[in-house]
Design brief:
Elements lengths: L7 H4 L18 H6 L9 E2 L9 E3 L7 H9 L4 E6 L14 H10 L4 E6 L12
Parallel strand pairs: 2-3, 3-4
Antiparallel strand pairs: 1-2
Length: 130
């Protein structure tokens, strides 16, 4: 693995970090984990200090599960960036929401603006050529 292109000092002030998950080194390596405390905000929900501004929720690489429902209960998101497209690697499991997951999420965030983000081609393995 190569070191980061920039040092944390070269980045300057960091207002927010959006991280889909931290279980894999391609999402959060040791230097990234050490950098996180420098950010003023993290996670998938962006909140704002000004009165009346509603949070933004970024689903990231996930499917409908209890954690998404919990975010809907805890935050009155005004905008939901919903990663969809049922992206898969080689296995039978989706990395992003399919149509049914997206519908469940839209129902859970019924008064938010839902912005679908199609993330499909980056995960599908291409067939090998003979």
């Amino acid at each position: 693995m190569r070191p980061p292109a920039l040092t944390p000092e070269a980045l300057g002030r960091t207002d927010a970090v959006l991280l889909s998950h931290d279980q894999h080194a391609d999402n959060l390596d040791h230097s990234g984990r050490a950098f996180l405390p420098r950010a003023r905000r993290g996670s998938f929900v962006l909140t704002f200090p000004n009165e009346g501004a509603r949070p933004i929720y970024v689903t990231g690489d996930t499917v409908w599960w209890d954690g998404v429902a919990e975010v809907a209960r805890r935050f009155a998101a005004g905008v939901v960036l919903l990663y969809a497209g049922a992206a898969q690697t080689r296995g039978p499991f989706n990395l992003t929401m399919n149509a049914n997951d997206a519908i469940e999420t839209a129902h859970a965030f019924s008064d938010a603006v839902i912005v679908p983000v199609r993330q499909l081609g980056t995960f599908h393995a291409r067939p090998r050529r003979p």
